[in-house]
Each structure stands twice: as C-alpha cells, then as structure tokens.
C-alpha cells in the first residue's frame, strides 16, 4: 500500500468517529473504541475492522502507549514542549529511508539529528536536544578516540550517560526503541503482537487490492476480446474479408 498503514488506520478511526457522532453515539478516539464497531468506513472490510478493534486498539498496551504519547506531547523539557520532527513516520521507517539514501546504516547521531532538527535550518528543536548531541560526541571522542570511523554506530552506555539514562523503559531521543545500538546494527528483533496484527492486516489488504486489480485487468481484456469478436462478426455479415480470411489466402 502506498500510504503508510498506521496513517490509513488513523484516518479510518477518524472516519468511523464521524459516523458514530452523526448517529448520536457518545464516542471518542481516547475512549472505548468498541463503540465504533458498527460504524466501519465502507472502504475497509468488516473482518479487518473488527480485527484491529479487538486485537489492537482495545488492548491495554495500545491504550497505555496512546496515553503515553499524549503525555509526552504535553511534557515540558527545558522550558519548551518535548517533541521531534519525525512526523507520523516511525523511527524504523526513518532509519530505512536514511539507509537507502546513505547506502549504509545511519549512525545514532545522524538518525537523532533527523528526528530532532528543523528541516529548514538544521537547528535542534530544543536546547536539550542540542546539548545531548554535543555531549555525546565529546564523550565518544574521549572514549574511542578522534577517528569517528572507529566509533560504533551508537554506544548505549555513553548515550544514556549524557541523556539522562533509561526512563520508563525508554532512552531519550529514540522513541520506543529500547536498545538503539542493536536497532541501528539491525539485530533488534522484538516484535509485539500488535505489530504482528498490523502486518497481517496490511498484507491481507494489499493482497486483496492486487487481486482486485488483476480481476479488473482480466475483465478489461475480456471486454476487448468480445469487442473484437463482434467487430469481426460484423465484417463477415457485410461480406468483407476478416484478418483470418486474409491469412487463409496466403
């Protein structure tokens, strides 16, 4: 699917909420999403819709992460709101895009800069964001030497030392990634059940779209063949030679 799957699902929830409110249902995206079951957007299959509600959006983990994200967006950090510039794209997707662009895995600092600097000015979005980057680079030189090519993509211990350590299972600057070093090296393999459901539903929807496209193409070809057959029949009725007649004469 061309659009990012979480964005598609977010729009689906928002569309469902509008339908529910139009029916005078007292629902909200922060409340019980079971209330949205009967207000499925017409472009998503019922089985996919119910699977997302039952296995993802109403789980305690989803609710906890949703509330945590809401709290983080309102959290003050060094006098400014804690935020990043990554948009709705996941940190994994940012890493993938950077790797394709750089033709190599990005370093921790490169990925961190992408997520915490303004695109127009390349300035860090908060004083802390800039301080952590500077402190980390200085500490890495002290620990591994001046040749940055000999440095690891990221040193978790050093990063935690300069950024404030692990808080509630998270390391500052890397979102939900609990082990940034392994994540950058490509060795992290922790997958949640919600992610499995997301992937399965996304693949099923993509396969269904591909099947529909193939079906439409087959119908188009069939219509084309029928059209040619009718045209060929009209020529014979009029006594005109068809392409097959010309071939028989050769």
How would a crystallographer describe the biggest sheet? 2 strands, antiparallel
Percent of residues in beta strands? under 5%
The largest sheet has its strands arranged as: 1-2
Distance between the termini: 51 Å
Q: Mean of the pLDDT scores?
A: 75
Overview features:
250 residues; mainly alpha; two-stranded antiparallel ribbon; 3% strand; Transposase, Ptta/En/Spm, plant; Probable_transposase_24
Give me the secondary-structure topology.
Layout: H1 5-22, H2 46-57, H3 60-73, E1 76-77, E2 80-81, H4 91-102, H5 108-116, H6 127-144, H7 156-163, E3 166-167, E4 170-171, H8 180-185, H9 193-237, H10 243-249
Antiparallel strand pairs: 1-2, 3-4
Helix pairs in contact: 2-9, 6-7
Describe the protein.
The protein is mostly helical and 250 residues long. Among the domains are: 77-190, no CATH class; 195-249. The protein is 60% helix and 3% strand. The protein has helices at residues 5-22, 46-57, 60-73, 91-102, 108-116, 127-144, 156-163, 180-185, 193-237, 243-249, and strands spanning 76-77, 80-81, 166-167, 170-171. The longest helix is centred in the last third of the chain and has 45 residues, at 193-237.
